[in-house]
Amino acid sequence: MYVRVVQLMAEGIRRPRDTCLADPGITGTLSIGDIPIGTAEKRPLRAAQLWEQWGSAAKRPLLPPLFDVQVLRMTPRGLLLRGFQIDSRNLEAIAQHAQEWWAVPIRDQE
Predict the structure, then answer these.
(1) Helix, strand, or coil here: 58?
(2) Higher-confidence residue: 87 or 108?
(3) Where are the beta strands (DSSP E) in the chain?
(4) How confident is the model at residue 108 (pLDDT cuts 50, 70, 90)?
(5) How far is it, in rounded angstroms, from Cα 35 to Cα 56?
(6) Per residue in 49-104, pLDDT tens?
(7) What pLDDT score does 109 carry?
(8) Three-class SS of residue 3?
(9) Alpha-carbon torsion 27, 25, 33, 59, what sign?
(10) Angle 101-29-63 (CA atoms, 0-180°, nearest 5)?
(11) What domain of life (predicted)?
């Protein structure tokens, strides 16, 4: 599904409503599914990913994936997704933060 995604949190803290409304978001193809690697509990890991077509056969991620993703709300205006993102900017202190995406469907790919 081709969507425009606005991230509603920054490092696990909710962004102000005005900031989110002013954010143009990132457009790409949204996919939700199980990742082939499992967890310590021997269950599949569900993730949402936003990506774009790159070349003729490759996909390039646009945002870090949302792990353990849940669809909180689905309306004609969009989807509210909640999960966890891995922050690996500092390799000595890799962190996991709560994140929510507001995904608005776009009818035609631009």
Answers:
(1) strand
(2) 87
(3) 2-7, 9-10, 13-14, 26-38, 44-54, 58-61, 66-75, 78-87, 95-105
(4) low
(5) 23
(6) 999 988 777 889 999 999 999 999 999 999 999 999 988 777 787 889 999 999 99
(7) 62
(8) strand
(9) positive
(10) 50
(11) Bacteria
What is the chain's length?
A: 110
Extract the tokens encoding 19: 């900031």
CB atoms within 10 A of CB 103: 23
Is residue 85 a contact partner of residue 65, using CB atoms and an 8 Å limit?
A: yes
What's the Cα-to-Cα distance from 30 to each of 3, 13, 16, 93, rounded to whole Å? Answer: 6, 23, 24, 29
Phi, psi of 21 (to 5 degrees): -65, -30
List the structure tokens of 53.
Answer: 């077509």
pLDDT over threshold 90, residue 31 = yes
Provide the Cα torsion 82, 13, 22, 67; round to 10°. -30
Question: What whole-number distance in Å separates Cα of residue 40 and Cα of residue 43?
Answer: 8
